[in-house]
From TrEMBL:
Name this protein carries in UniProt: RNA-guided endonuclease InsQ/TnpB family protein
Keyword field: DNA-binding, Endonuclease, Hydrolase, Nuclease
Entry keyword annotation includes Nuclease: yes
Region (Disordered): 391-425
GO molecular function terms noted in the UniProt entry: DNA binding; endonuclease activity
UniProt-listed InterPro entries: Cas12f1-like_TNB, RNA-guided_DNA_endo/Transpos
């Protein structure tokens, strides 16, 4: 089994290294914004979404204009191409959008532009390499030491970010283990979580976190950016950066709140794992998602992952195949089972909110991956609002029950969470 984690590491940056790092980030943004401009308008009247084409056209120019290494120039171009791809997808859906603009103080590193160690990192800058020690908690069981102290976790790549005058490394790490049975001795439950455009998260316990507020402000910030870009002045261009910082800050607060409440939900129900769908191909899996949604989904998982670890809960991802089309009651899988937000099984007639049904299936997918006849471990169930769903797909009512009725929430905007008396099993 493969585990992927993001370790958020605060860096102790030497005084003489701050300026080179800031200039490196500025030049990285220059590469990304130059590539965004070129890809958005295209060289033949069409948007460019090919990384190879963009690199061929811009590589030499950007190497001449910056002091960055070849790898950092390429990473800047590729960041822009990914954002333009998302924008083109929105245009095809008839949504209003504008050319991507990068204002966040960040740069992307991989093993060619950075050397990752367990206690420090060596980063390529416009003025050679700089080494920064990690600022880590004393408690070895706290994030991110739990990953850094585990030699089985390997560094893959990282995003360097500067926030409020401090430097952070968001390191992507991977650990691969054989699917051997683990010696668990007590019954465990997991919390399935579905993510989406209308509801940022829906849990298998029937709690909905509405995305109404997120979507409202996403549209507002898009309008502001579009208006400023139409002016075309230097002042307007600088103001776009301020809009991006405000947007980032507002969404950060929102996502931290959702993450905290998801963890509260897991702790309340005694869950050992919080299960999300694999976010690797989230753009293809949720085609109506904007680039802000994709960013929010990934950031939400990062927050849940490191916050949950402090409570002894692990956040994991599973393949999302057909989780939106499968009936969580009888297992029938058909694309006609789902119609927008409504789910009705063609075989057994089960009806419910489609996102809630998907959340149960995501938890169930983890069960099937974890537990089989030869596993030898303790049983694992999906936690529902009332009772659980076992690995055989059977509903198990709680010891004290009011007729075995499982309940889901009404859809209220975050931060409110509520559960209604709608029959949800």
């Amino acid at each position: 089994m493969e585990y992927r984690r993001t370790a958020v590491i605060k860096l102790d940056v030497p005084q003489d290294a701050d300026s080179p790092l800031r200039e490196t980030v500025e030049q990285f943004k220059h590469c990304a914004n130059t590539a965004s401009e070129w890809c958005w308008h295209g060289d033949d009247g069409y948007h460019v979404t090919s990384k190879a084409k963009a690199e061929r056209a811009l590589y030499d120019q950007l190497r001449d204009e910056t002091d960055l290494t070849a790898n950092l120039v390429q990473k800047g171009v590729r960041r822009a191409v990914e954002a333009v791809k998302s924008g083109v997808a929105r245009l095809k859906r008839g949504e209003r959008t504008s050319q991507p603009y990068f204002s966040a103080e960040s740069a992307v590193y991989d093993k060619r532009s950075a050397t990752f160690h367990r206690d420090h990192v060596s980063l390529s800058t416009v003025n050679g390499r700089v080494e920064c020690d990690y600022i880590l908690p004393d408690d070895p069981n706290r994030h991110p030491r739990t990953y850094l102290d585990d030699e089985d976790y390997e560094f893959r790549m990282a995003t360097l970010q500067r926030r409020d005058g401090e430097w952070f490394l968001h390191a992507s790490m991977r650990k691969v283990e054989a699917d051997d049975p683990e010696p668990y001795t007590e019954h465990r439950t997991v919390l399935g979580v579905d993510i989406g455009v209308n509801n940022i998260a829906v849990s298998s316990t029937g709690t909905f976190w509405s995305a109404d507020e997120f979507n409202h402000w996403r549209r507002e910030y898009e309008k502001r950016r579009g208006s400023l870009q139409q002016r075309g002045t230097r002042a307007a261009h600088e103001a776009i950066g301020g809009v991006g910082r405000k947007e980032y800050g507002r969404f950060e607060i929102y996502l931290h709140g959702v993450a905290n409440e998801l963890i509260e939900e897991a702790v309340e129900y005694g869950c050992s794992h919080i299960v999300f769908e694999d976010l690797t191909h989230i753009r293809e899996n949720i085609p109506q998602a904007t680039w802000q949604h994709v960013w929010a989904f990934r950031r939400l998982f990062q927050y849940v992952e490191y916050k949950a670890a402090e409570h002894g809960v692990e956040a994991v991802q599973v393949p999302p195949n057909h989780t939106s089309q499968r009936c969580s009651t009888c297992g029938c899988t058909h694309e006609d089972n789902r119609d927008g937000e409504h789910f009705e099984c063609l075989k057994c007639g089960y009806q419910n909110h489609a996102d809630y049904n998907a959340a149960k299936n995501i938890g169930f997918r983890y069960l099937r991956r974890r537990q089989n006849a030869a596993d030898g471990g303790a049983p694992v169930d999906v936690r529902l609002n009332r009772g659980t769903l076992n690995v055989s797909g059977e509903y198990v009512p709680p010891a004290t029950t009011d007729g075995g009725i499982e309940r889901e929430s009404t859809r209220k905007p975050y931060p409110q969470r509520a559960r209604s008396s709608d029959r949800a099993k």
